[in-house]
């Protein structure tokens, strides 16, 4: 496998790699029949082998973040209702028929677990190379993906591993934590002194390099999410009220924060169009969760929501002063809230986004140039 560029190698990944090699040494043997079954691993008539997830708290509740309860840097200990199953990629995985996706650090190194799909995502993960022992940055997650794909080549024939990788989906959702860090620590973050375009360009260039890296590793189906409207999240709105740093519009959103996020999404969308033109055999989908969440906020009753401003699980004004430190403190009707905690949507909101990403309904054109259902059926 050709690898482009140099990536940070995280020590925990080395431990996992050693465990996986141990399983090979201790007698796991696979036949040509296994190779054949792997190569034809479609589900529900789809042309998809598996799903591999990379990202931040939009894809991980903390289960895949080492020592998260002790070292988390947020005011919210539970960025979802206690299960990754309430997050967008897992909801989409259910629609595909994939139910065995394991967190990277929860696997025991067996071939079947890799074939079933892995979640490399880590709460608080950033695009900027700021990963540490408690969470893994974009580059560190890419290194873990590379190691896993190389192990497939060791345990399968090269042809079967290639076909499996090409027919799998790689799901990327980054950027949210970079912008949260920027706006929550803007007095100490030098990037705040630059323009929205400057910051977005740095992030999007790294995301583009990540997609090129995955392409070089034989990925041909990629989903890349934009960043949701952070200016509408309970914590950002509360911070703005405290500092008078931004103007809150009629929907309770801070426009200047959303404008920064919009610039990132616009550039990311443009770069994905260019990548699709450059790689004629690749199918890269951009999903605009920003517009999806704003559509829900603008028409809450239509989508079944009562509260678009306050967190279901949090303390203080709009649940935004202290995040979800126990799921027992959550509201009784989470399905009526757009926001679960300080920065993250509820399962109800994610379910609407998942359906729109899959079928174009009830929110059209969330994903482009085609839906995830169409991506699943696309032959590579």
TrEMBL record:
InterPro entries noted in UniProt: GDSL (IPR001087), GDSL_Est/Lipase (IPR051058), SGNH_hydro_sf (IPR036514)
Transmembrane spans: none
Q: Which UniProt keywords apply?
A: Hydrolase, Lipid degradation, Lipid metabolism, Signal
Q: Which GO terms describe its molecular function?
A: hydrolase activity, acting on ester bonds
Listed under GO biological process in this entry are: lipid catabolic process
Instruction: Report the domain of life of the source organism.
Output: Eukaryota
Q: Which residues does UniProt assign to the signal peptide?
A: 1-27
User: Which protein family is it in?
Assistant: Belongs to the 'GDSL' lipolytic enzyme family.
Name of protein = GDSL-like lipase/acylhydrolase
Q: Which organism is it from?
A: Medicago truncatula (Barrel medic)
Q: Which gene encodes it?
A: 11421438
């Amino acid at each position: 496998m050709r690898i482009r560029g140099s990536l940070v190698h995280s020590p925990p990944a080395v431990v996992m790699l050693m465990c996986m090699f141990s399983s090979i040494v201790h007698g796991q043997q696979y036949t040509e029949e296994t190779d054949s079954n792997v190569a034809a691993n479609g589900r529900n008539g789809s042309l998809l082998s598996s799903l591999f997830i990379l990202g931040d708290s939009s894809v991980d509740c903390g289960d895949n973040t080492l020592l998260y309860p002790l070292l988390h840097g947020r005011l919210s200990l539970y960025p979802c209702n206690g299960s990754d199953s309430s997050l967008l990629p897992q909801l989409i995985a259910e629609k595909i028929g994939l139910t065995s996706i394991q967190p990277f650090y929860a696997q025991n190194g067996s071939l079947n677990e890799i074939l079933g799909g892995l979640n490399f995502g880590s709460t608080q993960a950033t695009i900027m190379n700021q990963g540490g022992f408690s969470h893994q940055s974009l580059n560190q997650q890419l290194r873990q993906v590379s190691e896993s794909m190389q192990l497939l080549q060791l345990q399968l024939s090269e042809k079967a591993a290639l076909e499996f990788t090409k027919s799998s989906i790689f799901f990327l959702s980054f950027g949210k934590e970079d912008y949260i860090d920027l706006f929550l620590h803007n007095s100490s973050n030098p990037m705040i002194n630059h323009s929205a375009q400057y910051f977005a360009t740095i992030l999007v260039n790294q995301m583009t390099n990540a997609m090129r890296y995955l392409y070089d590793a034989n990925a041909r189906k990629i989903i890349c999410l934009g960043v949701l409207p952070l200016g509408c999240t309970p914590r950002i709105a509360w911070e703005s009220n405290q500092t008078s740093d931004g103007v809150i519009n009629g929907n309770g959103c801070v426009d200047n924060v959303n404008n920064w996020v919009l610039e990132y999404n616009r550039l990311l969308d443009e770069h994905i169009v260019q990548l699709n033109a450059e790689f004629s055999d690749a199918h890269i989908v951009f999903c605009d969760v920003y517009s999806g969440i704003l559509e829900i906020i603008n028409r809450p009753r239509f989508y079944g929501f009562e509260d678009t401003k306050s967190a279901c699980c949090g303390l203080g004004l709009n649940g935004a002063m202290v995040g979800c430190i126990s799921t027992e403190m959550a509201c009784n009707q989470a399905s009526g809230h757009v926001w679960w905690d300080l920065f993250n949507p509820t399962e109800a909101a994610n379910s609407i986004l998942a359906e729109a990403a899959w079928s174009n309904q009830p929110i059209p054109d969330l994903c482009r140039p085609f839906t995830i259902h169409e991506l699943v059926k696309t032959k590579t």
